[in-house]
From TrEMBL:
Transmembrane segment boundaries: 95-114, 135-166, 206-227, 248-270
Domain ABC transmembrane type-1: 87-267
Compartments it resides in: Cell membrane
Protein's UniProt name: ABC transporter permease
Endpoints of the signal sequence: none
InterPro entries in alphabetical order: MetI-like (IPR000515), MetI-like_sf (IPR035906)
């Protein structure tokens, strides 16, 4: 008996050592979180190369303006008041379509994810729309709504709705069955189940969809503002193209990029606060 016990004691540290080794390997293979600002290293290098190519004459202003020239042009437009009205018009279109798409996507996901009737009526239609590019609907929507603001907001709405629905619906379907059984045991009503189980369980998928939706609302707007508009960043870029003003085109691209990145950062901050309980449980 002594030999068996001793051999067991000898083998146990080996098992612990193997587990520790595996843990160290997993730690090395898992990338650590980058410090703040390091993610901007790549864009900064591209800007430096771009500026150097322009100053050395490898890149002509008629082909692409230098970043410094574009930034100065943007500053002048901001100071003379010609930029802010167009910026406000673009933001109004993008965020109006985003809000409508997010609300509709969440509501449809709840109806489809929590009821069989809703899934039978809704999911097939959404999957069909998912297969049809939003920009392919432009000619038909112009016939329906004209070429005004309603058309642009509606197309942004349809572009945003799909990722919100898909990810939220998948998150609802992935809720732990144990939570569902516990809700039944406690006798929760339908409204209480949605509030205390369904919505919290769908939050991770919803925030993934919201980040996709924020990006889509701006990418869709880039194209839509080239269609018969008199205001907006896309209108400025289209007019600058006619006059060969590449610095203003670059200003528009930078504005779209900054607005998209800032919106994504705000969503990530909201996600961290809303899902802070997950970090608390994991610690």
């Amino acid at each position: 008996m002594v030999d068996i016990s001793t051999s067991g004691l000898i083998r146990q540290p080996a098992r612990i050592e193997r587990r520790a080794t595996t843990g160290r390997q997993a730690t090395r293979l898992t990338p650590e979180k980058l410090p703040a600002g390091v993610r901007l290293l790549g864009p900064a290098i591209v800007l430096v190369i771009w500026e150097a190519a322009s100053r050395l004459g490898f890149l002509s202003p008629g082909t692409l303006a230098a970043p410094s020239t574009a930034l100065w042009s943007g500053y002048e437009m901001l100071m003379d008041g010609s930029l802010l009205p167009h910026l406000a018009a673009s933001a109004g279109r993008a965020y109006s379509g985003l809000l409508l798409g997010v609300v509709a996507g969440v509501v449809l996901a709840l109806l489809s994810g929590l009821t069989r009737t809703g899934e039978a009526l809704i999911d097939g239609l959404v999957q069909i729309k998912r297969a049809v590019p939003t920009l392919a609907l432009i000619p038909l929507v112009i016939i329906w709504l004209g070429i005004g603001e309603a058309m642009k907001i509606f197309l942004i709405f349809t572009a945003v709705l799909i990722p919100v629905y898909i990810n939220t619906h998948a998150a609802l379907r992935g809720i732990d069955i144990g939570h569902v059984e516990l809700a039944r045991t406690l006798g929760l009503s339908r409204a209480e189940f949605i509030r205390h189980v369904a919505l919290p369980g769908a939050l991770p998928g919803f925030f993934v969809s919201l980040r996709l939706a924020v990006a889509l609302c701006w990418t869709a707007l880039v194209v839509l503002e080239l269609i018969n508009t008199q205001t907006g960043i896309g209108y400025l870029m289209n007019r600058a193209r006619d006059w060969g003003q590449t610095e203003i085109i670059v200003v528009g691209i930078i504005i779209y990029a900054v607005l998209g990145l800032v919106s994504d950062a705000l969503v990530r901050l909201l996600e961290q606060r809303a899902l802070s309980y997950r970090r608390a449980l994991g610690s």
